[in-house]
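Help needed: design a sequence for this.
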């Protein structure tokens, strides 16, 4: 686990649960319900939608949308679901684009935060192919400090894999982390950190940027 992330994750989940009782905005309520599950919460919902998108259209109709929310155990009544669906069905054709939906659901981040996240991603993506893999991590992330490596439980590759799993989509851990997955993860972490300055310091320390 990278420095400080587990703690931020817990803080963010607690904060999200607390804010849930205060907000009436349906999109914000859905966002907070996802974040209450930690940084990977929004990604998890995306994964549920992806499974349901049988025809690979990357769109959902209302029935699929509600089923996805139910499968992911989101507490949302039908009226609220309809309201959210209407907000995202901009052209009123009865379907929503779920990539757009997930990007909007992601907690908003300033450009300064996005920039530092991209810097960290580029540093980790040593081969520069837009995906972080075990091969990329070998020169950047030192597995030897990991307690499970030190006590002989894990090989170096297992440490790398566990590290990648933090950022990977929760139900679809393929050992590859895309820019979008990395950004989604940090949008979650970012939600628990009030100031840009603190977020940037945390990222710089964590990734030695």
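Sure. Designed sequence:
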């Amino acid at each position: 686990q990278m420095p400080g992330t587990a703690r931020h994750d817990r803080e963010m989940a607690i904060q999200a649960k607390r804010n849930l009782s205060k907000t009436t905005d349906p999109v914000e309520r859905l966002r907070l319900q996802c974040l209450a599950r930690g940084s990977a919460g929004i990604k998890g919902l995306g994964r549920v939608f992806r499974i349901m998108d049988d025809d690979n259209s990357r769109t959902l109709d209302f029935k699929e949308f509600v089923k996805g929310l139910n499968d992911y155990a989101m507490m949302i009544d039908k009226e609220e679901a309809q309201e959210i669906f209407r907000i995202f069905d901009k052209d009123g054709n009865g379907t929503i684009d779920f990539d757009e939906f997930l990007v909007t659901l992601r907690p908003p981040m300033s450009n300064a935060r996005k920039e530092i996240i991209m810097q960290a991603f580029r540093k980790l993506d040593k081969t520069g192919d837009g995906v972080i893999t075990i091969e990329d991590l070998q020169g950047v992330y030192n597995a030897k400090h990991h307690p499970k490596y030190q006590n002989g439980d894990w090989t170096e590759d297992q440490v790398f894999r566990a590290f990648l799993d933090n950022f990977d989509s929760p139900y679809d851990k393929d050992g590859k982390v895309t820019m979008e997955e990395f950004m989604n993860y940090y949008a979650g972490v970012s939600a628990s950190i009030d100031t840009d300055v603190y977020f940037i310091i945390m990222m710089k320390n964590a990734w030695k940027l």
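Strands lie at 59-61, 95-97, 131-132, 177-178.
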